[in-house]
Structures are given as structure tokens and as C-alpha cells.
Amino acid sequence: MKIRHGILSLLAAFSLAGCASMNKEECLTADWRTVGFHDAAAGRTADTIDDHRQACAEYGVVPNLDRYLEGRKKGLVEYCRSSRGYQEGLAGRAYGGVCPANLEAAFKTGYEAGHRIYELEDAARDEERKLREKERRLKEARKKLEEARNAIVVSNDVTVRARAMTELQSRTRESNALEREIDVLKRRIDRLRQDARQARSGTDAQYR
To answer: Can you give the pTM of this predicted structure?
Structure first.
């Protein structure tokens, strides 16, 4: 349990430091085994060491490949868990194919389950953006509709009244169409959200 907590603390510390582009102090003090572990545990590909090599060349530091790969091997065991795959998929992050064959099946099972939920929730968010735009247009159409009604009642000018009548008919058709579209979008969003909730209820506990 202490080891697990230590690993999580180490990952958090490196996330804050941001070792994808190493600075002078990081290059000069790097424990390459730890760097390799962190890169793998974050799901980064093996060629990430090339970024470190370029970043540290300026300071005359060459990464220790053997120690880096030793750490990377242990980091992949941490990363390539089904529960981690689930969280990665749920967050919509891409999988870089880093897991070795003996660990990949479990990781991908979790990843695909999480990514399915992500797709449902992302689709719902996209529909909600469309809904907000339709509601904005409906509000504007109703405003124009009310203005046309007022013009018909207030104006004594035949031409103005005729134009207002045309506008009234046009805005009425637009409002009715938007109301139907909004209703369809709301039902679609409800269905997507419900599907996402059902998918989560069957997988959250499984991959916790």
C-alpha cells in the first residue's frame, strides 16, 4: 500500500514538473530510471527519450538508456492496467500502443469500455451546443415575431403593415421549426445521457 502511494506521489510530482521538455536542473539531476518509469506510467511512447536527449544536449547530459528502459519497463506495468485503460478512455485520451503484448489485452478492454462512455458523453455535449444555438435563434425569432405583431397593431401605414404581416408569417414558420428541432435535440440528449449513465453503472465499479 505504501509502495502504491509512493508511486502515485511520484507521478504527481513529475506531472507538476513537466519532464516532457526538461530544463537544466532536471537534466543535471535526472535519475533516468525514474524518468523512464514516469514516461511509461504516463503512457508516453519509447521515443520520448529522444525529446530528453535533445533537451539535455545543451547541458552536456546524455540520458542513460539502460536505466531509462529499466524504469520504463516497470512504468508500463503501472500504466497497462485495465483500470488505467478505463480512465484513459473515459478522458478521451489517445492510446499510443505502448503496452507489451502480455498486458495490452487487459488495458484495451478497459480503454474501449471507457472510450465508449466518452463518445456518448461527447456526443451529448455536441448536441447541447447545437441546442444552445437553436434556443438562441428561437429567442431572436420570437423577438422579431413580437415586433411584427406590434407593427401590425400600431401602424396605420398599409405598406408597413403588409411587410409586418410577411415578417409575422416568416417568423412564425421559423419559430415552429426551431421548436420542433429543439424538442428532437432534447430527446436525443436525454437518450445519450441515459446511455452513458447505464454504461457507467456497469463499468465504474468493475474498473475502479
So the answer is: 0.77
